Amino acid sequence: MIRHVPWRALPLAALLLWAPLPFASVSPVFSIVLLLLTLAALALTFLFPARSRSEGEDGSGERALALGPSKSSPMSATSAMPAMPATSAMLAIAAVAAVGLFGWLQSLAWPESLVHAVAPEVAALSRQAAEISGEVGAGPSRWPLSLAVESSRSAALDWLLPAAAALAALRVGASRRARRLLLGGIVLSAFLQIAIGVELWISRSDSLWGVTLAHFPGRLRGSFVNPNHLSLFLEIALMAIFAWTWWSVRRAWLESRRAEERLLRVGPAALAFLLVFAGVVLTASRAGVLAVVGGLVAQGLLVGSRRGRTWLLGAGLVAALGGVAFVTLVGVEGALGRLVSTSFDEIGGGARFQAALATFDLWQLSPITGVGLGAFRAAFPLVQPEALDGLWRHAHSDWVELLATTGLVGLAIFLGGLWGYLRRLTKVLNDGEGSEERAAGIAAAGALVTVGLHSFVDFGLTMPANALALAVLLGAAAAARTKPTR
Questions:
Q1: Closest CA to 173 of 479, 485, 449
Q2: pLDDT (tens digit, 9 = 90+) per residue, 347-358?
Q3: Residue 393 CA to its chain's centroid (Å)
Q4: DSSP string covering 455-476
């Protein structure tokens, strides 16, 4: 019915569909537009709060939360509202925003004595640049902690996007219908990307929306510039679909008696899983395929770790091995072919590996505060080996780049937020109010594993569309209702 539509979640679901279309919203114009729309979606969750806890019901037969005041259970109108988001999840979101704030602080001018104390190499480089340009004054000098001030300010806004998206999803994610709508947005967006990629593949076109893109023969890329970045988006969707499949199988096993009913329950999720998995394979992303296998193994372990469900552990591992077999069948000319042809010399001496080592050298210029959030492009030439030609915009490793650009301070802030989120996720996995809540936790856990693995060798999270999808999935999972702790 219309009155049961989770209206507050509709803007986020629509953004999940739109964000990848303008080249993953990576251009400055579209990234700002996406940020403004995300902030507007967040504002709507405050302007139009949930009316009651009943919107979390789904008619599944599992125990739902109280609908409101009753004669047998006198409750105030306030107690009928959804519970406030968990503190640990809020702290995790605050940590993401704090990294962006730290990048903005890096762009400010600080006393030279302070900059020299925490980042002596940055202070020396800033003074040298000022002397060359003749900008050194007679009075005390002030220098930024970033080697690229404008880039750090821009990157600060980029980090605000996932923080706002996660908070908006956290605000609406207590509702099961809202979580289903957000899942639908991610899955439909993945389908749309695969459809665009297949159409470009069939037409052998190198242009999209009237723009000529780099040529990646035989690789699916949808509306992304780089197939590896599309792979990361599909990986996030795939982890959510695996959790949906597990929940569908569980419901079919417990509630359905006829084979036709079980097929109707499991079939859509299974077909979606196969389609999106095929999309990952056809991107020919080696890191993407390996990260998916890692995510599936992690989800299989979570599914089988519950008491009385040890038999499902084998099923989860079989699912992961089945994924490898699926890669073997459909990826002969795609990801599998690239994996098989990868040599040890390419791994140890490839451009990405050399860039990662050089990025560690960049970090040593300012180990405490980094060279500036978003300043990698400007700072990397300081340590770029002669063997690495061309302009490097990113380190091809989100983890290493975060360390080099924000130093130990930024990495500590981020890892602290990740630890807080894992605490909340553990609560959802162990004490979720129902199987649907635990499925949300399984989806988030799988996404964290696969994105974490892929990000060691790529910079897919710098794509705003990918950051948005991951933030919405994690925020919605953190909002899942849990049983009260005695």
A1: 479
A2: 444 788 889 899
A3: 20
A4: TTS--GGGSHHHHHHHHHHHHH
